[in-house]
Amino acid sequence: MRIQSAIVCGVLVSLGLTGCVSSNYHYGVLRPQRGAVPASPQIETGRPNALLDGVGWVVGIPGKILLWDRRVDNHSISPATEQAISEYLVKNDLGQTKVRLNQYDPLGEWRRLTENHHVGAGWRYTLGTLTTVGYTILPGRVFGGDHYNPFTNTINVYSDHPAIALHEGGHAKDIRSRELPGTYSAAYMLPFVALWHEEKATSDVLSYLSVEDRPEEMREAYRILYPAYGTHVAGQFNNFIPPPFDLAVTAVCVIPGHVAGRIKATQVESRETLADADPFQASPLPELSAQVASPESRISALFPNAPSAFANDLD
Prior knowledge:
By secondary structure, the chain is mainly alpha-helical. The protein is built from 17 helices and 4 strands.
């Protein structure tokens, strides 16, 4: 019981630190991309297969229950989710990042592994090779698991949830901004370092949706990303806890995530609510803006007979 209490406390502290919304959102990666950047995102969708996708949906049931959302690992990506990740990549200069929507393409991934010179060859042909082997023999098309592969610079999406896709985009942005992306990615495997990576991606998504003024999408992001963060916390503890006790630890970590996420979601106000509560908050100082935009009207009011200094501005 003491161990469980300690875990709950750790989760609550972690959730208090994750998902911080910043009004000073930075669009784009912090380091210039090597090579030509495509004008539009590289997005490909897997060909529908009722049998294969049905098996994948069943395999993804535990994830649907943990995150309490039927869209998790449902292997059917809607245009809304595709548009969300496409816009995010464009606005953050991630044109070189590949997005595979419920697609299995091992040959394409091996080719991208050799061509991704943004990550050093030492990391690509060691840890990157192991990662791509895992992708090849355990296809996400069946086993699910949305993730970003930094060694091939590919986002793999199997869940029809915009916030989940954006979260993987947040990982891409974070890693592509690092001076040593391979080392930074490898550090993810160290105990509890993954929580830092997950916090960065979650905060980026929430800040992005806040700056973009998308309150409904922001609410959904809180409701799904907070419990998802709880699963990552559980994963750190489960490295030292044998089954089946790991299932109990996962539940203990995810439940506070659901509670915190829903509390945060209720605190997100819509634009209509802000306008009704305080019209100046939705549109600050409209009269002052009009005066600044039209200085000639102020001068004319003071000196009605004076010639206008702006009369020939458009000539």
